[in-house]
Fold:
Amino acid sequence: MKGFATKAVHGDLHTKDMHGALRMPLYDSVAFEHESAKDIQLSFEGKKPSHSYSRISNPSVDDFEQRIRLLFDALGVIAVSSGMAAIANVLLTLGQAGANIVTSRFLFGNTFSLFEKTLKPWGLEARYIDMTDARALEKSIDENTCAIFFEVITNPQLQVADVAKIAGIAEKYTIPVILDGTLTTPYIFKSNQFGVDIEVISSTKYISGGATTVGGLIIDYGTFDWEDCARLEEDAGKFGDFTLLLKLRREVYRNLGACLAPHNACMQTLGLETLSLRIDKSCVNALEIARALEKHPKVNSANYPGLRSSKYYETAQAQFNDKFGGILTFELNNRKECFKFIDSLNIIRRATNLNDNKTLILHPATTIFCEYSEAQKREMHVSDSMLRLSAGIEDVEDIIDDINQGLEGL
Amino acid sequence: MKITINGEDYLTAKENISIIELLEERNVARPETVSVQINGSFVKRKNFSTTVVKENDEVDFVFMMAGGSLR
Structure:
């Protein structure tokens, strides 16, 4: 099996269900029984490949993890309860008080909140830079830097950094690169071929199959030597390549308890099967919508990495295989106009999510960035006149008609 | 040849068996996801086919599903 869609549909052909079910059954059970006390001991020690308790592992979740592992060509995968849980689990495994992460000044609002409000009081510092500025990146790194973290396409600024360049700098200083690849997934961007060591993904978005369930993924590509990580150095001597995954599974992930529900794993496995079809359609729709907005006289500007007017077009084209994702933004005159436009829409839904099957619209400044000051929002390039649109998989003419009637009413 | 796998005695007909052969002989599913130690030392995956297990070696296969302590 070579093709992405074939792998996504069939997974590991060698793993058969005991009854021949073509779809992995839902193992909606908390606990799993063992033949003897010795068997339970071996299971807890990791010396027997069996499930004991669903907060730690579960057959339905394991099946989803293994499909992702094959599809991403990864060393291993841990599925968690959300994309935010994926980021938190990884940083709580690599970081410690006194350490720092170098990250982008453009981050998803909740990720910024995690760094500034949740992790900072525990002593983990986040240093914010422009990820397209290699010099700034090098200047921010010191002996306490435990990771470089950034989003593949920033939300909602839609900045696209040169991932290979960032990974090259990280390699020079032996620091792991963590990429939030939610908006691309490996169907658009094979991050391990650009030097990314760990990818975190909100599987709630593209993967879930149309916003069916909330979930997250931690993907370890097996490329970083954990002996070079201060927090994991001791364990690395014993577990080598698998150090991060085992540290998570047998400590941080287990203790935090942010496991993926088996039901969600089944829904997301189903979503995975149609992932490439849905991404293709949403990317085509996003580009057509962006082109229509760019030409419209009532729109001040349209921002989409697939537009030639985007300053990130060439970087995106080099990295993303002619697919630029499903998210775009555009500017009207002010918040009042944005709200009037949102309220006039008939098909496009007023909701905060990304990569749903339905086209969604949001005013970022008053929603996902509402907790930040005006100065912080300016620093993050989140303006009061910006709207974010997540292209769905509908017939794009209907979406453009809906946008046009909304703009005509302004 | 007598060795120990995960604390249990194990007899294999083959002398100087490689790790990859041992994983196959034991029908270990998804061997690429198993962390292997010989006498407490981690073996890199890329060395599975060249690293040989000898008489009386203590081999540990560690699977990713475990919830017990790292120690």
Summary: Chain B has one helix and seven strands.
